[in-house]
Amino acid sequence: MSLLWLLPQSFLTGAGATANIVAQNEFYYSEFPRSMSSISSTLSLLGMSAANLVASFLMNAIDELSKLGGKESWISTNINKGHYDYYYWVLAGLSVPNMIYFLICSKAYGPGKEDKKETTFHEQDD
Question: Biggest alpha carbon distance in the chain?
Answer without folding.
Answer: 71
